[in-house]
């Protein structure tokens, strides 16, 4: 897609900073660059230039020109690496605006890259994940998506589907003419089954991919005064707590994200469980139980100086019994871990236990699939392949199901219905990306 307007943005972080990077894209880049920094530098090589506006010197900096189509957006692009002062950047942007450039919207460079076929929807999402990555595991998974690991797989699946559809459709078009074998070759079914298995295998990892992005949810539960808030405060103050900007999402449950050995964990501080006549407290308890059910791990806290609550019985397999306040007295009740939020004793053991859990759940190669969109598209594809297999003798029905399976994959990479996904995605992007 050709855009007539040329966009600009400060693409580096908040000012003041050592260096600020101003990025440009669009048809006016060459002229604007020459107007503010003199002769065009050789493509993709940095040149030191005075930067000015109508004879007035504004700064000096490094200028690099990326002629389209071999650029990030596919258009002519440039970057000005200048001193990161607020006044300096403002003056340069104003000089560029005098050349007819306008400020970019959030994600607009990436949108142009998508529109010009430089990125597909999956790699755009990978880029979004990469910019948002807090933990090492998130970085690896996001980079694999950005590098096209899933795009490549989807292309392979689409190409197998095209071959299969061609086999079926040939039988539809020429079924009266007798020059096409009415029976499908044996290889057809083998190829269909192989395709199904390959998609289903990728789909099986979606849960671990999702957990890497959203974090392993650890509920802290137990009787009132068991020490939940104290433990979460101790964790929040530790040097592995992530300062995450979750503005706009009001939650009645306090959440503390932590990076333990490169894995994201989200700790939830829940209301203490006990029998109560208070409606408000009962509601808190109902939500606490719900959060425990939704959590990946429940830390069940028991203190030597409080009456233990009754452990809800639908949580088997994800309970870790934690004896708290070990600085007071050694626990007598059966437990898996013993710790003190006051002295810090036992916190290392807790981290080690959780790190082991993460390794079992999400260790190894980064998952190819991790978004809800992936799950929906790939399960729809598998369901349609199953439908095709069940109706294999009715070429028309089978062909229709395989067409649907292709459409799911087209949607996944953004060849169909990309706009809605992109609009939502770019809301999370920053200006200049
Ligand atoms: N000695 C000692 N006291 C603790 C420890 N952890 C918590 N406490 C004390 O135990 C009491 C209850 O602790 P909280 O952390 O508020 O317990 P809670 O489970 O969040 O309580 P609710 O929010 O009412 O359910 C407080 O007086 C804390 O100071 C600990 O490790 N050692």
TrEMBL record:
(6S)-5-formyl-5,6,7,8-tetrahydrofolate binds at residues 23, 79, 118, 433. It holds the Pfam family MnmE_helical. Belongs to the TRAFAC class TrmE-Era-EngA-EngB-Septin-like GTPase superfamily. TrmE GTPase family. It is an enzyme of class 3 (hydrolase). Binds 1 potassium ion per subunit. Signal peptide: none annotated. PANTHER family: TRNA MODIFICATION GTPASE GTPBP3 (PTHR42714), TRNA MODIFICATION GTPASE GTPBP3, MITOCHONDRIAL (PTHR42714:SF2). It comes from Devosia equisanguinis. Its main location: cytoplasm. Its cofactor is K(+). This is tRNA modification GTPase MnmE. Residues 215-359 form the TrmE-type G domain. It is found in: Cytoplasm. GTP binds at residues 225-230, 244-250. Keywords: Coiled coil, Cytoplasm, GTP-binding, Hydrolase, Magnesium, Metal-binding, Nucleotide-binding, Potassium, tRNA processing. Mg(2+) binds at residues 229, 250.
């Amino acid at each position: 897609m050709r855009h007539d307007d040329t966009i600009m943005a400060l693409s580096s972080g908040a000012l003041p900073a050592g260096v600020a990077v101003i990025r440009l894209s669009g048809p006016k880049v060459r002229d604007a660059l020459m107007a503010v920094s003199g002769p065009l530098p050789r493509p993709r090589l940095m040149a030191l230039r005075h930067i000015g506006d109508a004879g007035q010197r504004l700064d000096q900096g490094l200028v690099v020109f990326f002629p389209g189509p071999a650029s990030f957006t596919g258009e002519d692009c440039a970057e000005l690496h200048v001193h990161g002062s607020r006044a300096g950047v403002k003056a340069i942007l104003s000089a560029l605006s005098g050349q007819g450039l306008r400020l970019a919207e959030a994600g607009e460079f990436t949108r142009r890259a998508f529109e010009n076929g430089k990125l597909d929807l999956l790699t755009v999402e990978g880029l979004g994940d990469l910019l948002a990555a807090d933990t090492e595991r998130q970085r690896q998974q996001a980079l694999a998506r950005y590098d096209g690991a899933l795009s490549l797989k989807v292309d392979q699946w689409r190409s197998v589907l095209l071959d299969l559809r061609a086999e079926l459709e040939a039988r539809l078009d020429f079924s009266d003419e007798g020059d096409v074998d009415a029976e499908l070759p044996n290889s057809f079914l083998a190829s269909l089954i192989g395709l199904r298995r390959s998609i289903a295998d990728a789909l099986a990892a979606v849960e671990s991919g999702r957990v890497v992005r959203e974090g392993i949810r650890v509920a802290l539960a137990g009787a009132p005064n068991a020490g939940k808030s104290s433990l979460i405060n101790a964790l929040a103050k530790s040097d592995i707590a992530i300062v995450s900007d979750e503005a706009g999402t009001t939650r009645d449950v306090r959440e503390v994200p932590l990076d333990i050995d490169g894995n994201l964990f989200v700790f939830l501080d829940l209301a203490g469980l006990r029998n109560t006549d208070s409606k408000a407290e009962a509601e808190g308890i109902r939500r606490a139980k719900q959060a425990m059910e939704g959590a990946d791990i429940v830390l069940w806290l028991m203190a030597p100086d409080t009456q233990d609550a009754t452990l809800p019985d639908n949580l088997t397999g994800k309970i870790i019994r934690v004896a708290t306040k070990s600085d007071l007295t050694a626990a007598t009740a059966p437990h898996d871990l013993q710790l003190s939020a006051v002295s810090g004793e036992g916190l290392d053991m807790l981290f080690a236990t959780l790190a082991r859990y993460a390794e079992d759940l999400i260790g190894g190669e980064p998952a190819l699939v991790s978004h809800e969109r992936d799950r929906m598209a790939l399960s729809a594809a598998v369901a349609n392949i199953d439908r095709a297999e069940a109706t294999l003798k009715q070429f028309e029905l089978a062909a229709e199901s395989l067409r649907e399976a292709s459409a799911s994959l087209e949607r996944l990479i953004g060849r169909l219905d990309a706009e809605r996904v992109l609009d939502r995605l770019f809301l999370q992007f920053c200006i200049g990306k």
